[in-house]
């Protein structure tokens, strides 16, 4: 007699309790039986792991139901492919979205454990660099919140982006060891393993009277192993999956070589696989770094597509309806090789006709562009691409032939237009253009702010837009208000709730009700008190980490983002030097006390960006130690910028620096986080600043400098920075001081080349915008000097930023691109 239960008869575990007493008991149970510690000797990190395991159990119930629901309904799934997911710490995010924050706090308190202490021990997942990766994390949370079935696909970097330390003001890159003690959030999925190949040859097979079928025979092979992390939506509405790939060798050790004494050679395959998923953005200034980067991009793209197709065949007999059940979003050009890989899988592996595969591929993929910088639109040397991915190179040539013949025949494109849209750049060394591949292989190409989208049509994709005039559309970025208001700024959240109720928690556009309190004196005082408490917290952090004493009553002026010349940290530093000179020269004036904060990482091979960090630290050392300044100005570069640091700095900001060269920042999301948390923005009309001005009102944002059109015209007409510098007393004095070694007495020529670049070409319009920026900063001083006016403006910023929620952005993607 067979007593085996069928799957439908297997009893499901009861949902876990939210009772603090029961959760406390479970924490002790996990501590005892999963970690092997008695509560009397448990360390804070043991309590953290035990707590995460208890929270995770409550997530799993909803996670499994979310998965079952998709199989029942046949809903379309969205797959978000990104080389970065800057998710930050997950415990507070998870318990807050589950509505269990107070219950977990009470459970731990009953055990004598402070949730704030153990939550502070959770490492930041080192899976991203800056805005691109944080946007992907916000989108994952919002997709779960608005009930869209989704997977995020990326790489499980062992070290990810580097940990930044300072050595005499210079950036030093150290490995980030976030996985050193395991990751209790993730689940290894050994059944979801896929073979990934590189190199080798391509053979044509089949009878002479049949269409040829191509078989790629890679010379190298490794395994992509899946690790899943659940991503919880607001109020636990849905739990989606972040699936990250780890590379593993097919043969971990070559025993014959090991036994023969070649101990290093025996581990060659293992080392090669482990290297692939060890570091995010390996320096690509050399051929080895470029090859590793391309390997990473293909590795995670291929594994993700094999996984997507496998899952599709579990429910449907073939791929003819793939585009109706699957939407794949490419986050920038990093996963663009997916276009060629999908064609290989559909036509070579699954036997689909090439033209039919191309039609399905284009209907399935969509592509988000994040940059107008030509150098950031990835391209790869043809010899490198052909050596690593020979079949994909053939496919790209075939696609290119179809595109160019159509453009020549149907659109009557001329030679220059043909050269611009080609997937192969013929200027100099031949290169594969990944941006063009992503464009032609997708049915939708979106920008991330209104300005950026229009500039895409006019600049980097002008000719492809002419070929496919309906594909480009705009989806202005957003941020998740759960992490970037409710969790990072509980004081402000409580104050808003007290004033207008809690409807904004489910719809941030309800924050507009706060407008009525902008001129309310009592509310302004409470708003100011919350801001001061956040500033005290940041001042304490800087004091404990860096030994710098800060006055929380000073204006906290903050610029935190990746260090890049177009983001113009250099402009901010030069203005600090000019202000320093003015304070010393005119001590009789009533100067506004100000602390200028910087934080961000420079790419290891980006010389000028690293030099800008050194300049910030050198300027800080001089200004902060000059008694003539009387504490009216301080400069602080806070090392190792990450999500956790941002969660302290954003709520503490009085002034938000969004000062990129107009026409070069695609969107920005830091600008949205600062505004939502009640900071006044000083910025150019660049990226999403344009839409922020429209939403918060021109009176509640400080705009300066050239527009994108002005910048383009200045470059075309012959920008003359030397004349501008010589005509600006403050700018010329500040540049002279920097270039002559006032701030670098140990090496007086350290910054000479950096400053010389401003005199000779000033591509990023630092000199061009300086006077306008300096004047805008003095306008900010005047507003600050009137606290009633200052808080009216900053309250209106919080009240009017609700539109910039990633929930709104995702709903637009879902209805207009994914049809999900």
From TrEMBL:
It is found in: Cytoplasm. One of its GO terms (molecular function) is glycogen phosphorylase activity. The keyword Metal-binding does not apply. It comes from the Bacteria. One of its GO terms (cellular component) is cytoplasm. Its cofactor is pyridoxal 5'-phosphate. Its EC number is 2.4.1.1. Coiled coil: none annotated. It holds the Pfam family Phosphorylase. It is an enzyme of class 2 (transferase). Keywords: Allosteric enzyme, Carbohydrate metabolism, Cytoplasm, Glycosyltransferase, Pyridoxal phosphate, Transferase. Belongs to the glycogen phosphorylase family. Phosphorylase is an important allosteric enzyme in carbohydrate metabolism. Enzymes from different sources differ in their regulatory mechanisms and in their natural substrates. However, all known phosphorylases share catalytic and structural properties. This is Alpha-1,4 glucan phosphorylase. It comes from Rhizobium straminoryzae.
């Amino acid at each position: 007699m067979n007593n085996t239960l069928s799957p439908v008869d297997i009893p499901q575990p009861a949902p876990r309790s939210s009772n603090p007493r029961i959760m406390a008991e479970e924490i002790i149970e996990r501590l005892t039986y999963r970690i092997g510690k008695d509560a009397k000797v448990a360390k804070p990190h043991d309590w953290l792991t035990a707590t995460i395991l208890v929270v995770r159990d409550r997530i799993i119930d909803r996670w499994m139901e979310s998965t079952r629901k998709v199989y029942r309904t046949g809903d379309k799934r969205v797959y978000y492919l990104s080389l970065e997911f800057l998710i930050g710490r997950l415990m507070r995010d998870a318990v807050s979205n589950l509505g269990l924050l107070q219950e977990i706090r009470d459970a731990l308190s009953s055990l004598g454990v402070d949730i704030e202490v153990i939550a502070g021990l959770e490492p930041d997942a080192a899976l991203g660099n800056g805005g691109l990766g944080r946007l992907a994390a916000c989108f994952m949370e919002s997709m779960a919140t608005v009930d869209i079935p989704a997977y995020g696909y990326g790489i499980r970097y062992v070290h990810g982006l580097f940990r930044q330390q300072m050595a005499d003001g210079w950036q030093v890159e150290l490995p980030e060891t976030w996985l050193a003690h395991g990751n209790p959030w993730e689940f290894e999925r050994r059944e979801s393993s896929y073979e990934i190949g590189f190199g080798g040859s391509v053979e044509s097979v089949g009878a002479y009277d049949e269409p040829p079928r191509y078989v790629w025979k890679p010379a190298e092979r490794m395994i992509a192993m899946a690790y899943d992390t659940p991503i919880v939506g607001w109020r636990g509405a849905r739990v989606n999956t972040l699936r990250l790939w780890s590379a593993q060798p097919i043969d971990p050790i070559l025993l014959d070589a090991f036994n023969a004494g070649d101990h290093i050679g025996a581990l060659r395959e293992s080392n090669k696989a482990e290297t692939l998923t060890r570091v995010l953005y390996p320096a690509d200034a050399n051929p080895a770094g470029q090859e590793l980067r391309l390997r990473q991009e293909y590795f995670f793209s291929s594994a993700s597509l094999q996984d997507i197709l496998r899952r599709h065949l579990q429910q449907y007999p073939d791929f003819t309806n793939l585009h109706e059940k699957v939407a794949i979003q490419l986050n920038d050009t990093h996963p663009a090789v997916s276009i060629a890989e999908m064609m290989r899988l559909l036509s070579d592996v699954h036997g689909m006709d090439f033209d039919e595969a191309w039609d399905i591929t284009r209907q399935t993929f969509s592509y988000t562009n994040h940059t107008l910088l030509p150098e950031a639109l990835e391209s790869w040397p043809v010899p490198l691409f052909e050596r690593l991915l020979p079949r994909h190179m053939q496919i790209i040539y075939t696609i290119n032939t179809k595109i160019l013949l159509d453009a020549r025949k149907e659109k009557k494109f001329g030679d220059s237009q043909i050269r611009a849209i080609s997937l192969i750049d013929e200027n100099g060394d031949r290169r594969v253009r990944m941006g063009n591949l992503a464009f032609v292989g997708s049915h939708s190409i979106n920008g991330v702010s209104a300005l950026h989208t229009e500039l895409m049509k006019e600049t980097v994709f002008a000719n492809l837009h002419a070929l496919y005039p309906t594909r480009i559309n705009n989806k202005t970025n957003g941020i998740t208000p759960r992490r970037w208001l409710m969790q990072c700024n509980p004081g402000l959240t409580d104050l808003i709730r007290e004033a207008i109720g809690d409807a904004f928690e489910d719809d941030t556009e309800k924050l507009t009700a706060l407008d009525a309190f902008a001129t309310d004196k009592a509310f302004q005082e409470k708003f100011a008190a919350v801001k001061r408490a956040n500033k005290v917290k940041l001042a304490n952090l800087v004091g404990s980490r860096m030994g710098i004493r800060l006055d929380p009553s000073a204006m906290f002026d903050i610029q935190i983002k990746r260090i890049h010349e177009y983001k113009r940290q250099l402009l901010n530093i030069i203005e600090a030097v000019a202000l320093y000179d003015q304070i010393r020269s005119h001590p009789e004036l009533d100067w506004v006390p100000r602390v200028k904060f910087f934080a961000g990482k420079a790419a290891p091979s980006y010389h000028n960006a690293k030099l800008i960090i050194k300049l910030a630290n050198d300027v800080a050392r001089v200004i902060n130690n000059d008694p003539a300044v009387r504490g009216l100005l301080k400069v602080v570069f806070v090392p190792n910028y990450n999500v956790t640091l941002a969660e302290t700095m954003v709520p503490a900001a009085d002034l938000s620096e969004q000062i990129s060269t107009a026409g070069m920042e695609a969107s920005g999301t830091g600008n949205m986080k600062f505004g939502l948390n009640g900071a006044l923005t000083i910025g150019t009309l660049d990226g999403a600043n344009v839409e922020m001005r429209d939403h918060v009102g021109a009176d509640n944002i400080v705009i300066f400098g050239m527009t994108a059109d002005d910048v383009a015209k200045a470059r075309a007409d012959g920008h003359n920075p030397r004349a501008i510098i010589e005509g600006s007393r403050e700018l010329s004095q500040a540049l002279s001081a920097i270039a002559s070694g006032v701030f670098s007495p140990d090496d007086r020529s350290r910054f000479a080349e950096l400053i010389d670049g401003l005199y000779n070409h000033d591509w990023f319009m630092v000199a061009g915008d300086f006077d306008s920026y300096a004047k805008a900063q003095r306008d900010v001083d005047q507003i600050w000097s009137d606290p009633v006016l200052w808080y009216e403006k900053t309250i209106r910023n919080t009240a009017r930023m609700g539109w910039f929620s990633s929930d709104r952005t995702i709903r637009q993607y879902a209805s207009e691109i994914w049809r999900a």
